[in-house]
Amino acid sequence: MTSQESSSQELARYEALVSYVDREIVRLTPRRRDSAGKVAAALAFNAALGDPQQRYPSIQVAGTSGKGSVSALLSEALHAAGVRTGLHVSPYLQSFSEKTWIAGRLASPTQLWAALEHVRPETERVRHDPELPASVHGLTSLAISYQAFAEAEIELAVMETGCGGRFDLVQGLNKALCVISDLALDHQQALGETLAEIAWHKAGILEAGVPAVALRGPGKEVVEAEALRVGAPLRLVSLEDLALEPRALVFPNLGRVEFPEPLSGFPQRNLALAGLALDALSQAGWDLRAEHLLAAAQAPPLPGRLEEVQASPRVVLDGAHNPHKLEGCLRALAGEPGQGPRLHVLLGASGLRAPDDLVAALAPWRPRVTTTRLELYGKRTVPADELAATARAHGLEAQAIEPPEEALEAALSALGPDQTLLVTGSIYLVGRLRERWVPRDRVILSGSTSG
User: Fold this and answer.
1) Are the CB atoms for 18 and 91 separated by under 8 Å?
2) 227-280: pLDDT as tens digits
3) What CA–CA distances, in Å, run from 369 to 39, 359, 411?
4) From 3.40.1190.10, 3.90.440.10, 3.40.30.10, 3.40.50.10990, which CATH number describes the 3-299 domain?
5) Is 350 helix (H, G, I), strand (E, B) or coil?
6) Distance between first and last Cα of the chain
7) Is 306 exposed, middle or buried (0-12, 13-18, 19+ CB in 10 A)?
8) How many secondary structure helices (H) and strands (E) does the chain include?
């Protein structure tokens, strides 16, 4: 078989897998709401497959902001330390294979297909059950990662929680460590209207006797109380206790880690939390050192997280979909409101979030806004005209253009050579437009998000 034939076969296998998992088994009608039943369904689904997620230890990461980036940093550091690591993140930007990383690379279509073949009989058994309170698509996607990790004989998995934690589909892990990142208001329709309720959901990943780490911040007093209640040894540390110098973090076991550039904002918090997790693993006997966290910091970040895809004019992709994430992104790009150059923003929104909250987070930076809308199978999206009207109501200059590719070209054409365009508001929008710079098929075949 020629290289071209092999590539065509891999892409055909990928398309068949995605057609099944992301369309065929996606239920478009509402499921019965039963949180405890959802957890029971996840445990039963995994058990029917032989509990592949129990065949290796896992680090579970939950939180509102930063959990994907912290998960990726942990995976990179462990890989640098020679640990055969699996990483599961969700959702993906361009390729379903982005959900499943094995030893620093995306799982291949062949690996994913083999895992699906193991999972499919149980998927088919439950997919037509009208009373099932869990997403068959979600159960199957996770099980593909669990099985692929087991078949690849990984030594340690890093599992990003989906939504919440207590009643999330990520269940039944053989946990070595729990990590909780920054907390904020998001997914209120599922997790509650207050930060305390959301923190309670995130703290649901804690287990008796399993070490846990977190940085102090809003909502963490709820996490602390839950750790005490269930008997989970929690290291809750202030960032100021770790960030003793602008370019360094200091940990009890890893020691001093010095970075090439000064640290601040979300990147600093994510690195500090990842280092705290590695420090806990080191204390538990894993051979981890300062150089491994430094290697993770220097590795390419997950795509769509403050990702610069073009230098002049500058284009940055960031899937910030709630006010907390968006404010952090804007500060990283332009400093405090009124301090940096004027930004242009291409904005799209999906899900049930109120667009007013997202636009209100943008408003202090006074960007010029282009709004757009993308169609998502089985998901709600906000019309471009509605987003633009909301932006104007906040005093922003805004235009609405559909589809996203046309909106992108219009936004790019209005940029000067020294200006910045931020594409944000929806990780699905970021993934779709990233295709302009990094083709999806190249990501699939190369096993790398950089293509």
Assistant:
1) no
2) 999 999 999 999 999 998 889 999 999 999 999 988 888 889 999 999 999 999
3) 41, 10, 9
4) 3.40.1190.10
5) strand
6) 23
7) buried
8) 17, 16
